[in-house]
Amino acid sequence: MFLTASFFLLLGCFVSWLVIQLALSLGLGADRDDGLQHHHTHTGFIPRIGGLGMVTGFALAYLLCFFFLDEEDNQSVMHYSVFAGGVAAFLLGFVDDIRPLGARVKLLAQVIIALLAHHAGLEITRINLPLLHVTVELGLFSIFVTVFWIVALMNLINLIDGLDGLAGGIGLMLMALLAYLAYESGVAFSLALSLGMCGAILGFLFHNYPPAKAYMGDSGAYLIGYVIAAISLLNSEKGTVLAAMIAPVLALALPICDVAYAIIRRALKGLPVFRPDRGHIHHRIMATGLSHQRTVLILYAVSLLALLAGLLTFFQQGRLFPILLGFVFVLLLLALRGQNLSPQRFSQRLNDSIRARQETKNALQLRDWFVLEAERADTGEHLWSDFHFILKKIGFCRAELRIGAIERRFYIPNTAHDEPDKCWQETHEIGSQTRLTLYSEREHFTEGQFLVISDLACEAWKRAAANWRAANENELTFEAEAKSPRTYRAQKTRSLYRPTY
């Protein structure tokens, strides 16, 4: 058993490492540059090919199951669906890595994958409550709970993939936990696939640990999330339904809390729920001055403690879960101590949130308009003049944009643009050649509101630059000129363009 397990682990690791190494040497999988990545912590272009290596290692582990396991252990529709669903999740992410899909399209595809998995037998039909000695039959709700479980884990791994080595390391810990649970439950198929996936992720981490040479992309994140969800359901078939599901949830406690807080934070600000930002826990830790490596190691340590809590829960068949919840509740109370929570403060925060949502909605619409204008602008200078327009409409009183060695400025007269103590100021580095500095009077925005709209303005310029590059096949500078329209419709659109001065 030990030799077979080691073989699955090492083979998955080697195959994943080799595929990624070959893809890097061939220059495959260029990083997606769609103007939406200014929240990433890396600079330069890094290929999103980690998912390709992981799915290859995972596929090989699955094929080996037919040689090492008995027919009754691996030849069923439910077992086929683990592999088929994993490949489908990978392909969905792979397409999105090449050409970004809308959030609704991806969610619909994820729901379809989850529905097919449920139809194949990967389902949550009942939940055991050991403290009450009660088994709850879900009945018709089984399909909703199962779909939520699979879709949630696919997106959870993707949402925490914001720092080199973070999502891969947490995914590796989870797969190791599932391998152990499979061993304890006697599910040979789950054990083999878990070890194969452990090896595949480990092979990827050789290329992803800071500083990263490759990213897993959406393809790798969706694959890991689906496999975790599917194997945890396979493990639960031996009667440990609650423990087999709670263990992965506890191991993912940190990213779950981080993502939940991110969703609430964005909703209060009026931002799209899945829009990236710099409010995640790893961004906050790095803001204290810690390096990528130390930040990742700290988060690894916290996740490892949560994983051990998951193991204890498994051993006790879920009976320790209320105690763990109580411990978390105490920590939450300690964290909120001294926060000056009161009805008046809550009311003020609510009013600020309503105002911020309106301002954010306006900024988002102006951003989208400006990005489209990049296709019609005839020169970089004219596009910069259009940028003046949206900055004034959003509420900025001054801006400075430097591209290379050239800098352009604008300001609104009769404002406090030249009084630092009366203005908020934020500087954004957009790549290695562009820097944008924005100013707004403090009386118009709180600091939090200013940071949100400043970030949206930065995103607007970066996405417009990417749109210009795609339309004109050259970099956006102040001296840049749009290439001649190739069609009558494009020429008519260009002739209707009028820069805003």
Properties at a glance:
two-stranded antiparallel ribbon; 501 residues; alpha+beta; 2 domains; Beta-Lactamase
List the helices and strands and how they pair.
Blueprint: H1 2-26, H2 50-68, H3 71-74, H4 77-98, H5 103-120, E1 126-129, E2 134-137, H6 142-159, H7 166-185, H8 188-208, H9 217-235, H10 241-251, H11 253-269, H12 281-287, H13 292-315, H14 321-336, H15 343-376, H16 380-394, E3 398-403, E4 406-411, E5 423-430, E6 434-441, H17 447-472, H18 488-495
Antiparallel strand pairs: 1-2, 3-4, 3-6, 5-6
Helix pairs in contact: 1-2, 1-8, 2-4, 2-8, 2-9, 4-5, 4-9, 5-6, 6-9, 7-8, 7-9, 7-10, 7-13, 8-9, 9-10, 10-13, 15-16, 15-17
Radius of gyration: 25 Å
- The pLDDT mean sits at 76
Please report the number of helical segments. 18
Q: Uncertain regions: pLDDT < 50 for 5+ in a row?
A: 33-38
Order the strands across the largest sheet as they lie in space.
4-3-6-5
How much helix is in the residues?
55-70%
Largest beta-sheet details: 4 strands, antiparallel
The count of DSSP E runs of length 2 or more, i.e. the number of strands, is 6
Based on secondary structure, the structural category is alpha+beta
Oligomer, anyone?
single chain
Approximately how much beta-strand content do the residues carry?
A: 5-15%
CA-based shape: globular
Instruction: State the distance separating the first and last CA atoms.
Output: 74 Å
